């Protein structure tokens, strides 16, 4: 079975073809960074319009490069949520129109399920069960994973997602959008010992997170440091480093706790922030110290991509769960509500229209 995956949930247009026997046949991505940079963040309406312009030409380019034709497809998968509703609807419309014209099944994929399964595209994928830390621009989740579609959310952020905290803190440090990777770069030259940021919610039991306070802490630290010595590049680099240390430390503490509590040995780290070098290093150490191992997707499959959607869609289509004709897109969608391919007890939220 050969499945085209289409990802348009936010500011990246991405497509890929995954073959259940041969693996990933190709993938392509177009980033809207330049479209949104002038506004300092994603403008939903501009994102939708750009997805309309780019999705089909990108798919055509992918087919040409991989030596494929649309008639080679046995199914189409697209990101049905969570995400920006207008952007999601572009992918949904294209995927459903294409599937209808080709007479093949179509499935709406949960974006975070895509992230969660992304390490399966690597040569040495993790076996089930595992613990997944999903860290993206919209979500921070610790998930117990027993198989495809068998998820239990153990912890999540009560306020900002970790990627959002990176982006907001980067903005106040004067860095251009998208801030996360820029902040990580600035932190490289920072002194980790000069400032100490809090490790939110680590002093109490539980696996939830809170990251909105770190941004406020960064504002105050920047102001106080500027009062003493003026606003210097050094201050900003040291603050970036202290912020990154606090985030990495907090995530490491919670992952260690979740591994111990769940008895799981394998730790999967995915989502855009999973591309962070320091985070990858620390979590690999944590998993090893607990007698297990950490698994990461390659960097380009940590951030949004079409390969993870094609892979997740292929698993679902092979299992016989195609959704219903009403399944379109939903801006909010809980990972807990997913069911395994082909059945299970949890309701399929992809059948529900956006309220
Ligand atoms: O998964 P993703 O590409 O999109 C969403 O589903 O949200 O994640 C994007 C997030 C952004 O907040 C971005 O700043 C962050 O991931 N990010 C990073 C790094 N690369 C991307 N944050 C920290 N360090 C990085 N190297
Ligand atoms: Zn994502």
Describe this structure in words.
With 355 residues, the protein is α/β, with parallel strands linked by helices. It has 11 helices and 10 strands. It has a 5-stranded mixed beta sheet with strand order 3-2-1-4-5, sandwiched between helices. A hairpin with a 4-residue loop joins strand 1 (2-7) and strand 2. Helix 4 (111-117) packs across helix 11 (307-318), helix 5 packs antiparallel against helix 8 (233-262) and helix 8 (233-262) runs parallel beside helix 9. The chain is globular, with a radius of gyration of 20 Å. Mean pLDDT is 94; it is low at 344-355. The chain binds 5'-O-[(R)-(carboxyoxy)(hydroxy)phosphoryl]adenosine and zinc ion. 5'-O-[(R)-(carboxyoxy)(hydroxy)phosphoryl]adenosine binds at residues 10, 136-138, 163, 166-167, 178-181, 184, 271-273, 275-276, 303-304.
Brief descriptors of the model:
355 residues; alpha/beta; five-stranded mixed beta sheet; 43% helix; globular; disordered C terminus; binds 5'-O-[(R)-(carboxyoxy)(hydroxy)phosphoryl]adenosine; binds zinc ion
From the spread of the alpha carbons, the general shape counts as globular
| Proportion of strand residues | 15-25%
Oligomer state of the chains in this structure: single chain
- Main beta sheet: 5 strands, mixed
Query: What ranges have pLDDT less than 50 throughout 5 or more consecutive residues?
Result: 344-355
**Mean pLDDT figure:** 94
User: If strands are numbered along the chain, what order do they take across the biggest sheet?
Assistant: 3-2-1-4-5
What is the percent of helical residues?
A: 40-55%
Q: Which small molecules are bound?
A: 5'-O-[(R)-(carboxyoxy)(hydroxy)phosphoryl]adenosine, zinc ion
Number of helices: 11
Tell me the distance between the termini: 34 Å
In N-to-C order, the SSE pattern is EEEHHEHEHEEEHHHHEHEHH
The rounded Rg comes to 20 Å
Computed structural class: alpha/beta
Count all strands and give the number: 10
């Amino acid at each position: 079975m050969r499945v085209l995956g289409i990802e348009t949930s936010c500011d990246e247009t991405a497509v890929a073809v995954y073959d259940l026997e041969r693996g990933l046949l190709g993938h392509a991505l177009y980033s809207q960074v330049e479209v949104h940079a002038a506004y300092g963040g994603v403008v939903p309406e501009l994102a939708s319009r750009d997805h309309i312009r780019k999705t089909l030409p990108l798919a055509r380019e992918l087919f040409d490069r991989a030596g494929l034709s649309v008639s080679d497809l046995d199914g189409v998968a697209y990101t049905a949520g969570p995400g920006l509703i207008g952007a999601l609807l572009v992918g949904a419309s294209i995927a459903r129109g294409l599937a209808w014209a080709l007479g093949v099944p179509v499935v709406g994929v949960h974006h975070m399920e895509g992230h969660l399964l992304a390490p399966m595209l690597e040569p040495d994928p993790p076996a089930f069960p595992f613990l997944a830390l999903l860290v993206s621009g919209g979500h921070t989740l610790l998930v117990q994973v027993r198989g495809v579609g068998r998820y239990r959310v153990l912890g999540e952020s009560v306020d900002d997602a970790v990627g959002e905290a990176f982006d907001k803190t980067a903005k106040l440090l004067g860095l251009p959008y998208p801030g996360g990777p820029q902040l990580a770069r600035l932190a490289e030259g920072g002194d980790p010992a000069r400032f100490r940021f809090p490790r939110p919610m680590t002093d109490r039991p539980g696996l939830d997170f809170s990251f909105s306070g770190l941004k406020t802490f960064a504002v105050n630290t920047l102001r106080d440091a500027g009062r003493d010595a003026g606003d210097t590049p050094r201050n900003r680099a040291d603050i970036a480093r202290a912020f990154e240390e606090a985030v990495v430390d907090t995530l490491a503490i919670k992952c260690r706790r979740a591994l111990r509590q769940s008895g799981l040995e394998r730790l999967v780290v995915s989502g855009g922030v999973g591309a962070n070098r320091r985070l990858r290093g620390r979590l690999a150490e944590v998993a090893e110290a607990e007698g297990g191992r950490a698994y990461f997707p390659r960097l380009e499959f940590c951030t949004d991509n079409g390969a993870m959607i094609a892979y997740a869609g292929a698993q679902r289509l092979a299992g016989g769960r195609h959704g219903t004709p009403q399944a379109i897109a939903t801006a909010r969608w809980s990972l807990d509500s997913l069911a395994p391919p082909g059945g299970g007890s949890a309701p399929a939220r992809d059948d529900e229209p956006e309220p």
